[in-house]
Automatic annotation (TrEMBL):
Keywords: Cytoplasm, GTP-binding, Hydrolase, Nucleotide-binding, Ribonucleoprotein, RNA-binding, Signal recognition particle. It comes from Haloferula helveola. Its EC number is 3.6.5.4. Its main location: cytoplasm. This is Signal recognition particle protein. It comes from the Bacteria. Composed of three domains: the N-terminal N domain, which is responsible for interactions with the ribosome, the central G domain, which binds GTP, and the C-terminal M domain, which binds the RNA and the signal sequence of the RNC. It is found in: Cytoplasm. It catalyses: GTP + H2O = GDP + phosphate + H(+). Involved in targeting and insertion of nascent membrane proteins into the cytoplasmic membrane. Binds to the hydrophobic signal sequence of the ribosome-nascent chain (RNC) as it emerges from the ribosomes. The SRP-RNC complex is then targeted to the cytoplasmic membrane where it interacts with the SRP receptor FtsY. PROSITE patterns: SRP54. GTP binds at residues 102-109, 185-189, 243-246. The gene is ffh. InterPro entries: AAA+_ATPase (IPR003593), P-loop_NTPase (IPR027417), Signal_recog_part_SRP54_M_sf (IPR036891), Signal_recog_particl_SRP54_hlx (IPR013822), Signal_recog_particle_SRP54_M (IPR004125), SRP (IPR004780), SRP/SRP_N (IPR036225), SRP54 (IPR022941). Pfam families: SRP54, SRP54_N, SRP_SPB.
Length: 439
């Protein structure tokens, strides 16, 4: 994905002590390839790279203590600029009119429901109007969506074919409702054709909506951008709602959209559910595109925090089956270091998935402390040969560590299981959970 390729490039840049013009040129070439691979329009990518290059070549950057970081920052800011700078809110009167247009399957009907849902939560009183007269199922679909978000809906007779007539009747109906913003769902086509454009022009001229929003499928990449340009030429759009961003690993449509059309992306659809429509914030999107890269950087930090020699030594002992409570303590310390990294990592975008894969218990500092206390209450001999820890010793350890006999027993049992697991690498992962899972 775009994030991955950029990440590699930036890691290389960050690793360079002194940045030269050649470093920058090399990095920019890679970035340009990554952008093109992500289906960003050629001229957009070219102009973008020229901007970044101009800023990155600035003498101050080359002299800075961390030129790599600074170039990443320049890239981030330019990316946010390319994506449109500031978030552009809807500009609605009261009552307001929103006209949604776009090709078939782009997500218009779903987005109509999502938008109604959002506006309702923001305290407005949206009404939905079905103006897709080509497919009877489309009217039912909007009615269903309206029911789900609890918003009144106008559904014309299936035999109607005059979209302006329907719109007129719908407005009369809207007047009788307690609503303050009317959202029109329209028909699409597989491609832009004359009939689609003509009908949309008439509807647009009649409704004079404050917001004519193109709904475009992000997964269609440059296709979405050219669709946006055509709709803008036909009726003049006020903004774009980019749907299916959840499934778009390339991100190219988002990146070229603003530069090519000059129109802001106002919302992003990120899922099929009716609450999965989000305001589009260019700076956050830039964070996201770069965000994965930062996570990888952080993970690398985790790796360097754990002393490789210690880890190897401990692994060798594990492999040879000579695992005792000293090794156990070492491991806990390693995991402890990971623990505060986990807190840091949680702040980074994109980390949630990884976090889920790691057991929480393994990172609970309180639990680790209690486990550690028990081990510290053992004599050196007991730590080396845990099998000698029987009845009265257990009670003594419990007393000494301020824990209960039950807790000591549980730790010893876990330790015994761990030792057994050590012989099976597949079970090593499970072990991570067991380490801190006391109490
Ligand atoms: P329309 O023909 O433009 O009205 O498109 P629909 O609203 O009927 O949507 C077409 C398909 O895309 C449906 O299956 C939707 O559930 C799906 N869809 C719409 N928006 C999104 C989105 O943001 N993410 C995902 N994953 N699917 C979406
Ligand atoms: Mg539809």
């Amino acid at each position: 994905s775009l994030s991955d390729s950029l990440d590699k490039t930036f890691r290389n840049l960050r690793g360079v002590g002194k940045i030269s013009e050649k470093n920058i040129t090399d990095a920019l070439r890679e970035i340009r390839l990554a952008l093109l691979e992500a289906d960003v329009e050629f001229t957009v990518a070219k102009t973008f790279i020229a901007h970044v290059k101009e800023k990155a070549m600035g003498a101050d950057v080359l002299k800075s203590i961390k030129p790599g970081e600074q170039i990443v920052k320049i890239f981030h800011d330019e990316l946010a600029e390319l994506l449109g700078g500031d978030q552009v809110p809807l500009n609605l009167d009261s009552p307001g009119r929103i006209l949604l247009c776009g090709l078939n399957g782009a997500g218009k009907t779903t987005t109509a429901g999502k938008l109604a849902n959002r506006l309702k939560r923001e305290g407005r009183k949206p009404l939905l109007i079905a103006c897709d007269l080509y497919r009877p199922a489309a009217i039912d679909q909007l009615a269903t969506v309206a029911g789900q978000v609890g918003v009144p809906v106008y559904t014309p007779d299936a035999s109607e074919s005059d979209v302006v007539k329907v719109a007129k009747e719908a407005l009369a109906w809207a007047d009788s409702q307690d609503g303050d913003v009317v959202i029109f769902d329209t028909a699409g086509r597989q491609e832009i054709d004359e009939r689609l454009v003509e009908e949309l022009k008439q509807l647009h001229a009649f409704l004079k909506p404050q917001e004519t929003l193109l709904v475009a499928d992000a997964a269609t990449g440059q296709g979405a951008v050219s669709v946006a340009r055509h709709f803008d030429e036909a009726v003049g759009i006020d903004g774009i709602i980019l749907t299916k961003l959840d499934g778009d690993a390339r991100g190219g449509a988002a990146l070229s959209m603003r530069a090519v059309t000059g129109k802001p992306i106002k919302y992003a659809g990120e899922g099929e559910k009716l609450d999965q429509l989000f305001e589009f914030h260019p700076d956050r999107m830039a964070d996201r595109i770069l965000g994965m890269g930062d996570v990888v950087g952080m993970v690398e930090q985790v790796a360097t925090r754990i002393d490789e020699k210690d880890a190897m030594k401990s692994m060798e002992r594990l492999a040879s089956g000579k695992f005792d409570f000293y090794d156990f303590l070492d491991q806990m310390k390693m995991i402890g270091k990971l623990g505060d990294m986990k807190g840091l990592l949680s702040l980074m975008p994109g980390f949630s998935k990884m976090k889920k894969q790691l057991p929480d218990a393994a990172f609970d500092p309180k639990r680790l402390k209690r486990t550690e206390a028990i081990v510290l209450s053992m004599t050196p001999d007991e730590r080396r040969r845990p099998e000698i820890i029987k009845g009265s010793r257990r009670q003594r350890i419990a007393n000494g560590s301020g824990s209960t006999l039950v807790e000591v027993n549980r730790l010893l049992k876990q330790f015994g299981e761990m030792r057994k697991m050590m012989r099976s690498p597949k079970k090593m992962k499970k072990m991570m959970g067991g380490l801190g899972a006391l109490g």
